[in-house]
């Protein structure tokens, strides 16, 4: 008989679907207007917030959505400046 409950490793108490907080590298690349290869490089260099799920990298949705909102608002957004400001807010606990 199979259990109808998901395996414990697939679910955490804090978030039943942790990948909802993250976007794929491909989606992030599209929003940032860069290639997926560059997204991987930025991620590995610590310039993108996110994590690795198994063999897949994911970028924090909050970061990607914030960048996208700035662009859609018509603001000239420099990625490095946006990333620096975002990480500064996080380190201060304000993000």
From TrEMBL:
Looking at the record, the residues that make up the Helix-turn-helix domain are: 22-62
Which is a Pfam family this sequence falls into? HTH_17
Single annotated GO MF: DNA binding
Q: Which protein are we looking at?
A: Excisionase family DNA binding protein
